[in-house]
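The aim of this short unit is practical: by the end, you should be able to scan a pair of folded records and say something sensible about each. We start with the first protein, listed as its amino acid sequence and then its structure tokens.
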Amino acid sequence: MPRGHGKTIAQNKKAGHDYFIEETFEAGIVLQGTEIKAIRAGRVNLKESFARIKDGEVYIHNMHISHYEQGNIYNHEPTRSRKLLLHRKQINQLIGATQQKGYALVPLKMYIKNGVAKVLIGLGRGKKKYDKREDLKRKQVNREIDRAIKESLK
């Protein structure tokens, strides 16, 4: 199965608006307790999350996995830092890339592939305000063109 395919649980739509995504990496995630059950129930939010490299390991911060309703007193903490599982070669590549100014690791999508939770991490370069405005104009023009084509076909 290609990278980024599987049953999509959560998507970070804001990432495409705020960053130019140059490369993507598929990473496993270290979970504990009832977190996988909450993920399968779709109780995940990637909006404010980000990834960082610490001591040669990649961690995802601020990813919110809600409490599992049928859980007990040993339920997980919703926004704890979670370790991402990547190959050493990929981590070294990310270390080199994120040391450049303006680059960040952004979680793009969480999905379940072959029964295992995966996170699609993007190496993103931050967009400036004028880049964002240009993208919005391009989207609007494309929408108008599609609308005109649709009207002419009627």
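Turning to the second protein, read its sequence before its tokens, just as you did above.
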Amino acid sequence: MATARKKPASTEDTAAPQAKPGLRVLKKYPNRRLYDTQTSSYITLADVKRMVLDGVDFEVHDAKSHEDLTRSILLQIILEEETGGVPMFSTSSLAQIIRFYGHAMQGVMGGLLERQMQAFTDMQQRFTEQTPGMPFSPEAWTGLMGGYAEQSKSLMNQWQEQMKNAGALFPFGTKK
């Protein structure tokens, strides 16, 4: 019995991935333009940033290959923000992040940063809920930082305990 050989998919006949319900799909064309399939119009990175700020779930796909480019677009937005005003990351913190790429701890560090960001977001949301109508100011936020520091310390202790239990060694210094 002969089996038919499957023709390898080329970029021309690769089917577009099925969109998840409620997910907005953006296409990126070779001319670097972004196309919003929901509104049937071209959009800018500023529009994508607004979608992020508004909590819109979306994915960006290459129009031809259908490769997921979402992370790349989000990194472009971060780069524009970092170069356009008051940066969030210091040169030192960016260098430290780069040092984790290719390191055995890369996956652990990504998870740790994600949990820290979520803890920070949760705390900000609680502040907003507990103080309705109170203007958000650096002074008000400073009062919460003590709680955030405690939560961060707790997460770090949990992470270190997990590493100890896994038998992994974690270097606490940085290479010079």
